[in-house]
Amino acid sequence: MSAGNVIVRFDNVTFNYLPQKPLLEEANFSVRENTKITIMGQNGVGKSTIFKMITGELKPDGGTVSAGTNTTIALASQVMPRELLEDDLETFFGRTFTDKPYNLPKRIKDVLAVVNLDAPLDRKIREFSGGQQARLLLAYALIQTPDILLLDEPTNNLDAAGIEHLTQFLMNYQKTCLVISHDESFLNAFTEGILYVDSFTHKVEQYVGDYYVALAEIEAQIERERAKNAQLKRSIQDRKDKINFFSHKGGKMRKLASKLKDQVETAEEEMVEERREDKTINNFILPAQTNIVGAILEINSVATLKGHKVVRHTLNPPLTLRKKELMLIKGPNGIGKSTFLRSLAEGTEKGAQITKDVVVAYYAQDFSGLDFNKTAYEALAEMMKDPWNQEIYATAAQFLLSSQTLKNPVGALSEGQKGLLCYARFVLQKPGLLIMDEPTNHINFRHLPIIAEALDKFEGAVIMVSHATDWLEQITVDQTLDLGAL
Questions:
Q1: What is the Cα–Cα distance from 337 to 329, expressed in whole angstroms?
Q2: Residue 453's closest CA among 438, 468, 475?
Q3: Cα dihedral angle (127, 130, 131, 136), rounded to 10 degrees?
Q4: Among 84-88, 180-184, 387-391, 455-459, where is mean pLDDT lowest?
């Protein structure tokens, strides 16, 4: 279906979460009906905020946001709200309707088929894996049959089959769709244009074409701006040198110097504000606990979920994880990978033993290891036996968390900032064992090679679940435990 009338428009939109800290300044863009658009930008730059303004959850401080007359909008969020975890499926999907339809069970069954999921209506949300919850969030949006579908990091927690299914669905989707994602290959399969949120100018730039075409245009524009400014700078410096020389002369030379000053002012006004590339975290070292001898983790058995039944498998011989080793846990969504890692982190996994006194750090895919009510500063300080301000602020800055950001509650941070906060906590914690469940979720792709290098140099042990194939190619995997093959 071809693109139609404008369905979303931002006119000179300004939005501030804090005074003197704008997210958007006079942002202008439009989206036409039946198009598929990607929103790009650095973590914390305001991408999810744009979605909230489109849905009406947030209002701009200046300018106007319009989304068509009688237009229906649905948002598939990044993370399942914690207050919904005790819902069963029928209650969960029933929340989308003012009046519960008589055929709700059939509609739920139909929409679950779209996201390639099958489950009984009385199953509680907390019983689904992270990948399955990601599918439920998409289904929650789709059951509303919206004119505008907003997807916020929809591939997070999805296995390869889930991403393939979602990609095919979006390629065939006949209505307007806006997507926030860091998954380049996924985006390039269906994107028709990009809205780029510039973290320096706080404006939105619009590009037409698939993901890679638009990305190339962004890079080309940066080079054009740099080239123009470099030429103007050379011309300005040449004129300034002549002004210095002629201003000490008499008569006509002084008049020429005055004329050159006017030319310098004109040239300086012609300087363009260069669009700078997103900031990237600097290389960092992930310190490890030093007083560990021998094995760090031994796994004797592991439980999987097959056909809604728990099956425990004995490993013979047991798997042992030592210093400087990384173990990858594989398997399809819903088989029990996250449950296994969570029980390890909580010390309740009966099939595995972590060596006594090993310091354990845990990256939960839903950030459940963080207290959302504490400030970001407090979340870092609690990782240290003797909190030291200078080290806390320096470590936070390494992960692009400003002193102002540290004053905010963890719950107010963007999902990407929460991810970077976790890595900053690990640096201060100095763990012996890192338990990581989808550690690339929400993280800007520019940061991932640096994080991969830090993990490869980590002197402790790592056990990880990840479906990000590009990421896995950047790290060294020493052992693999495939739950799907047991």
A1: 7
A2: 475
A3: 60
A4: 180-184
Nearest to 343 by CA among 329, 324, 323: 329
Cα(197)–Cα(466) distance, rounded to whole angstroms?
28
Q: Are 150 and 51 in contact (CB under 8 A)?
A: yes
Signed CA dihedral, 299, 305, 310, 312: sign only: negative
State percent of the chain over pLDDT 90.
46
Query: Both tokens of residue 48?
Result: 């999810």
Closest CA to 330 of 438, 422, 434, 423: 438
Q: Can you tell me which residue has the tokens 């470099």?
A: 230
- Give dist(CA 77, CA 276) in Å, integer: 29
Q: Are 10 and 204 in contact (CB under 8 A)?
A: yes
Unique residue bearing structure tokens 């310098």:
264
For residue 332, whether the previous peptide bond is cis, meaning omega lies within 30 degrees of 0, is no
Long-range Cβ contacts of 44-49 (<8 Å, 24+ apart):
44/400, 44/405, 44/413, 44/414, 44/416, 44/417, 45/197, 45/198, 45/199, 46/15, 46/197, 46/202, 47/152, 47/180, 47/197, 48/78, 48/152, 48/180, 48/414, 48/415, 49/15, 49/17, 49/23, 49/24
Beta-bridge mates of residue 151? 76, 179
Structure tokens at 447: 């940061």
Residue 379 main-chain phi, psi, to 5 deg:
-65, -30
pLDDT digits (tens, 9 = 90+) for 347-391: 999 999 999 999 999 999 888 889 999 999 999 999 998 888 999
Question: How much is the pLDDT for 1?
Answer: 41
- Using CA atoms, how far residue 43 sits from 241, 385, 421, 428, 452, in Å, is 43, 29, 12, 22, 18
**pLDDT tens string 430-471:** 999 999 999 988 788 788 899 999 999 999 999 999 888 778
Q: How far apart are CA 421 and CA 372, in angstroms?
A: 12
The pTM (predicted TM-score) of the whole model is 0.67
Contact 141, 125 (CB under 8 A): no
Q: How far is it, in rounded angstroms, from Cα 350 to Cα 354?
A: 11
Whole-angstrom Cα distance, residue 454 to residue 449? 9
CA-nearest of 225, 256, 194, 271 to 29 is 194
Query: With bands split at pLDDT 50, 70 and 90, how would you rate the model's confidence at 283?
Result: very high
> Of all helices (H) and strands (E), which one includes residue 472?
helix 469-472
Residue range 238-259: mean pLDDT, rounded:
65
